[in-house]
């Protein structure tokens, strides 16, 4: 039976565990402006609003 010669460091073991961890998408919330589902605490991909203000210009408004 194989036995490791040296102990695996915390960093090495942690990076291996995090690579194998299956991430799931968190709960979605509704945008207060357009009603589209989006990730919480992030800018809405459709209208560009975050916390009741425009953070980024939306593609439709930029082309007009």
Q: What order do the helices and strands come in, and which of them pair?
A:
Elements: H1 10-20, E1 29-30, E2 37-38, H2 59-63
Antiparallel strand pairs: 1-2
What does this structure look like?
This protein has 64 residues and is an alpha+beta fold. It has helices spanning 10-20, 59-63; strands at 29-30, 37-38. The protein has a two-stranded antiparallel sheet. Strand 1 (29-30) and strand 2 (37-38) form a beta hairpin. The longest helix is centred in the first third of the chain and has 11 residues, at 10-20.
First-residue to last-residue Cα separation: 69 Å
* Rg calculated over all Cα atoms: 21 Å
Discrete helix count: 2
Strand content bin = 5-15%
**N-to-C series of helices and strands:** HEEH
Shape: rod-shaped
The residue fraction in helices comes out at 25-40%
């Amino acid at each position: 039976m194989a036995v490791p010669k040296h102990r695996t460091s915390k960093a090495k073991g942690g990076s291996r565990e995090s690579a194998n961890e299956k991430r799931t998408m968190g709960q979605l919330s509704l945008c207060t402006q357009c009603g589209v589902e989006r990730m919480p605490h992030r800018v809405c991909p459709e209208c560009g609003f975050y916390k009741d203000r425009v953070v980024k210009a939306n593609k439709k408004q930029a082309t007009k």
